[in-house]
Design a protein that fits this description.
The chain has about 500 residues and is of the alpha/beta class. The protein is built from 18 helices and 21 strands. It has an 8-stranded parallel beta barrel, surrounded by 7 helices. A 4-stranded mixed β-sheet has the order 6-11-10-9. A 3-stranded antiparallel β-sheet has the order 18-19-20. Helix 10 crosses helix 12. Bound molecules: xanthosine-5'-monophosphate. Keywords: CBS domain, Cytoplasm, GMP biosynthesis, Metal-binding, NAD, Oxidoreductase, Potassium, Purine biosynthesis.
Length: about 500
């Protein structure tokens, strides 16, 4: 740990992931024995120490569901109305593997042409018909490819073609019960209805084949529902937002602020901990022990560390405040550990190696934006540019995001500020495929790193870090260049 401490009388130099390299240790165990289990907060433990950022191009309900299924957790962003955010939290808590909770529905007055259009754009034609064409209203029929195959008139009403003798499952049925009904009825889709006959979800036979167990899934103890987080700001109205999130079942609230050591955040932490003692609260962002101490004294259960180091951030450039992330993580983690408070290293992660370094510096989990924004589960559609498949990714301090309301992360105490100063940019990131393959790839990469360093768990890594047995060295700029791919004319960038 000597690299992080200045010699007496010398100025402090701060380092980050690219500056640092871990020294190898002795390997006495196979890679599959490396245990990545770690605390997110005092009470929440994750099997995979990964958190998706509360950003509007990263975490909405689909990301949160899939992060939790893979052993991590998603923090649903707050750049939407509080009701919408609460309903997304609720959807994650109510998620059941194999059930489609937001099926496309049509009404009896929609037409055969509507079904054809859905088939063209979304790829399926098995559609439940409800009284008002929405989920949650009475199921009155079902349309499948067979019902419309030989209908030439695209204006024909669905009431004329739909099947009305329906096989349904009841709300609360298990996946294997639903499977049995599907086997018996030989149907492709099974609508699930509540006691009043209202449509609540749908099961597709094709999805059932794909439905796997997720043994590492992050679940609460009480109901075995998926864990989910949500972010809020520090304005008085955010207390009401927090109440709605708690009512929807949120497990952890992240107070989203680029400089977390403010009277506004301290007040919010105290309010949340006094009002909802069971709720886990992560404060931040902080990069110094002084900032951390204020939030710890206010009662946080976890801290988020990082300032101005995210891929889309311009805070250090615009505000001249922040800290190199390796040093920030090391110092705050070492300090917070004395109080039993885990820290999340937030931002700046570009590879599995960076994750390993963040954890080896003392972080209990890492939070990622750009690493996850290009996955299928991130909000938004893919588009092509110069032959590359991309998704949009933007900073919450970019003018674009702030115009939707995310300026609360960057402005405290002045609600009617006239001049907006951007602290982030908007851009795009490359397609990363699905979290179903990407998260196992990240886990395995980190396991290899820890195995090379000779440690089989994060606890073991930290014990060695603090007794000097797990060592970092600083890499010169030439060494950093040497440590990357070099001397090749071109090469394949395939990750897994
Ligand atoms: P990565 O590097 O994972 O960073 O893409 C994600 C983290 O960056 C923070 N964030 C911002 N910071 N201006 C900033 O200074 C911004 O506009 C901005 N948007 C997000 C945030 O901590 C996130 O988790």
């Amino acid at each position: 740990t000597a690299v992080f401490h200045a010699a007496p009388g010398k100025a402090c130099v701060a380092y980050t992931y690219e500056d640092l390299i871990l020294m190898p240790g002795h390997i006495a165990f196979p890679v599959h024995e490396v245990n990545l289990e770690s605390h997110l907060t005092k009470k929440i433990i994750l099997k995979a120490p990964f958190v998706s950022s509360p950003m509007d191009t990263v975490t909405e309900q689909t990301m949160a569901i899939n992060m939790a299924l893979q052993g991590g957790i998603g923090i649903i962003h707050s750049n939407m109305s509080d009701d919408e955010q609460a309903s997304q939290v609720y959807a994650v808590k109510k998620y059941k593997n194999g059930f489609i909770n937001d099926p496309v529905c049509l009404s009896v007055n929609d037409t055969v042409g509507d079904v054809v259009r859905i088939k063209k754009t979304l790829g399926y034609s098995g559609i439940p018909i409800t009284e008002d064409g929405k989920l949650g209203s009475k199921l009155v029929g079902f349309v499948s490819a067979r019902d419309i195959d030989f209908v030439d008139d695209s204006t024909k009403k669905l009431s004329d073609v739909m099947t009305t003798s329906l096989t349904t499952g009841s709300e609360g049925c298990s996946l294997s019960e639903a499977n049995e009904i599907l086997q018996r009825s030989k149907k492709g889709k099974l609508p699930i209805v509540d006691a009043n006959g209202n449509l609540v979800s749908l099961i597709a036979r094709t999805d059932l084949h794909k439905a796997r167990d997720f043994p590492n899934a992050s679940r609460d103890h009480a109901n075995k529902q998926l864990l989910v987080g949500a972010s809020i700001g520090t304005r008085p109205a955010d207390k009401d937002r927090a109440r709605k999130l708690v009512e929807a079942g949120v497990d952890v609230i992240v107070i989203d602020s680029s400089q977390g050591d403010s009277i506004y955040q301290l007040d919010m932490v105290q309010h949340l901990k006094a009002t909802y003692p069971e709720l886990q609260v992560i404060g931040g962002n902080v990069v110094t022990c002084g900032q951390a101490l204020h939030l710890i004294e206010a009662g946080v259960d976890g801290l988020r560390v990082g300032m101005g180091i995210g891929s889309i951030c311009t805070t250090q450039e615009v505000c001249a405040v922040g800290r190199a992330q390796g040093s920030a993580v090391y110092h705050v983690a070492k300090f917070a550990r004395k109080f039993g408070i885990p820290i999340v290293a937030d931002g700046g992660i570009q590879s599995t190696g960076h994750i390993t370094k963040a954890l080896a510096c003392g972080a209990s989990c890492v939070m990622m934006g750009s690493m996850l924004a290009g996955t299928e589960e991130a909000p938004g559609d893919y588009f092509f540019q110069d032959g590359v498949r991309l998704k949009k990714y933007r900073g919450m301090g970019s003018i674009e995001a702030m115009s939707k309301g995310s300026d609360k992360r960057y402005v405290w105490g002045d609600d009617d500020i006239q001049v907006k100063v951007a602290q982030g940019v908007s851009g795009s990131v490359a397609d990363k495929g699905s979290l179903r393959r990407y998260i196992p790839y990240l886990c395995q990469g980190v396991r290899h790193g820890l195995q090379d360093a000779g440690v089989n768990s994060l606890d073991m890594a930290w014990e060695r870090l603090y007794n000097g047995k797990l060592r970092f060295e600083i890499r010169s700029p030439a060494a950093q260049k040497e440590g990357g791919v070099h001397s090749l004319h071109n090469y394949s960038k395939r990750l897994y």
